[in-house]
Design brief:
This protein is of the alpha+beta class. It is 29% helix and 24% strand. It contains 18 helices and 24 strands. The strands form six sheets. Strands 6-9-10-24-23-22-19-12 form an eight-stranded mixed β-sheet, with helices on both faces. It has a five-stranded mixed barrel with strand order 1-2-3-5-4. Helix 7 crosses helix 12. The longest helix is centred in the first third of the chain and has 23 residues. It is globular and about 90 Å long. The model has no long low-confidence stretch (mean pLDDT 95).
Amino acid sequence: MHPYRTHTCAQLSAENVGETVRLSGWIHRKRDHGGVLFVDLRDHYGLTQIVADSDSPALAVLEGLRVESVITIEGTVKARVAETVNANLATGAIEVFARGVTVQSAAEELPMPVADEQPYPEDIRLKYRFLDLRRETLHRNIMTRVAVIADMRQRMGAVGFNEFSTPILTASSPEGARDFLVPSRIHAGKFYALPQAPQQYKQLLMVAGFDRYFQIAPCFRDEDPRADRLPGEFYQLDLEMSFVTQEEVWETMEPVIQGTFAAFAGDKSVTPAGKFPRIPYDEAILKYGSDKPDLRNPLIISDVSSHFTQSGFGLFEKIVGGGGVVRVIPAPATHEKSRKFFDDMNDWARKEGYAGLGYVTRKGGEFGGPIAKNHGPERMAELYAELGLGENDGLFFAAGKEADAAKLAGAARIRVGEELGLIDESRFALCWIVDFPFYEWNEDEKKVDFSHNPFSMPQGGIDALNGQDPLTIKAYQYDLVCNGYEIASGSIRNHMPETMVKAFEIVGLSKADVEERFGGMYRAFQYGAPPHGGMAAGVDRIIMLLCGAKNLREISLFPMNQRAEELLMGAPSPAEPRALRDLHLRVVEPVGKVSQTS
């Protein structure tokens, strides 16, 4: 017999009754029924109920152990009586009568519970992550992560992609975030950077003649954490293809992404492959107030500025006359809502930093509220008819500069949809956002800057760069969105040296700057580069959606906290003086901070 186990804690069934078995695992729960002790024994696979009474030599040992102690049980499989069968447990038809027990590792008093998953302070959960990972939900999420990544790899291989590993120590890359720098011991004063993404390397692979690349790639960005992005590091399904149009990228990847979602969606529906809507960026900003629209929300934003060029409502007339816009968000069937519902929405907008969120109520065809009173019932009826709204529908108004009004309308659309219960929680709604602007205006630096990936191909190529207002140029750039989250981003790449130089000149970089900063790729483009494109899908974010988790820490093994600290290992930590000398570094304390070594 194996020294630790003949079966896992999920294997035994009624067919094993009468057998002598050996199980190993953690004490999950203990229940003392007056001389009879029930122990739930847990391992990676499941639970088995262990029973010990006064006839068992294991009783005294088990009574003296704390939960989460690791033990090996040798005993006899017995059938449970009918009224104690647990149909929700794989081993619920049997129990094991303990004939003997070996203590492999006794547990101290726990800093946090494992068996019960009540909320617990995050700093404790992260410091004792090895205990947190024993909890059923988190353990299941991590195993879902493993399965999702394996599924992605299988699907990518099936459509002709090969997995390549690109360097981790590399040069700084202009991905838009701050690099993690690694000092060189050999080259004094010089630094490697951890890759924000394998962008340049995967393009070089296409130049080198490898047709289809993919990688489950670790990426590193020194940026502030948020719920849908972990600090420090994250993983993406990175891919690149040669001799493709953006439509071919979409057609290739829709079945892969849709297939993975469908495989793990449970009872939720998934947008069919080949049916992902393709929404231009400008349309997304207008209709949804966001380039990450949640299509489960049926509400559509409309621009009604033309209705207020001449209006009794002077505020909107003044905004439109000054170049601003008026956007509206319908609030269907709100005739039974009190005035408080509408006032609360206005208060919410003010707390978000906006001047307010105007509104019109309507009940049985009668309009209510200051906007309707001043604009007039006839004009309001015209506006409602144009929008296709009914006699019991309310309406919210976001007015101001176009960008601000769009942002407020987008946030209000989400909130109204949630407040009215309009979000269809039973599906994963996927879509492509396409035709992104190539450039944007950098207000802080008062100059034109890249809007997204600087290596994207501008629509119209070098002719557009030479002849168009830069802020009107679109890029062959696209994002994949699911339920309000960006889950992938990609583009057709700029593979022409002269086009690459011109694109960077518009943002203020010279040909010499391009050669210095991106010399490897620029040189490669001199020797025959195929048209190519690709994308990168956020593995962590996809898994978060599939698991129904609220933040990425619930699907990651050893994440950092909101202060970018890894509490289990104590990272980041001070370096030894000798290590700093070897790296030619000296720590300069921030002004006003007392040195810990002084």
